[in-house]
Amino acid sequence: MRIAKILYKDEEAGILTQHDDGSFTFRYHTIWMEDNNKPGISLTLPKNRREYHSKFLFPFFFNILPEGSNKQVVCKHNRIDQDDYFGLLMTTAKDDSIGAIRVVKIENS
C-alpha cells in the first residue's frame, strides 16, 4: 500500500491511497469537510464524507501526469515503470503541478 497527501494550495485536503490490489481510494480530511470555505479538489471528486473508490487511478489525478516524450524522460530519469501511475504522480506532482494540487508521498507507506 502506498499513501500520499493531497495538498490544495499547500493545505492538506485529503489522502490518496493505492492498495496492494492496485485499486485506489481518496478521502477528504474531516477538518477540510467541516470548513465550508474549502472547495472540493475537482468537479469529479466533490467534497463528500464518504471515500471514493476506483479500480484505476482517478481521472483527475491521471490527467496531471506527463505524457509522451516528457513521460518517457521522467520515467527513465527517476527509474519509474511507465505503468506506475501512482509513482509517477508522486514524483511529478510533489513540488509543482498544473493547478492548485500537489501530491506528497507519506513516508513509510
Automatic annotation (TrEMBL):
Domain HipA N-terminal subdomain: 5-103
Pfam families: Couple_hipA (PF13657)
Source domain of life: Bacteria
Protein name: HipA N-terminal domain-containing protein
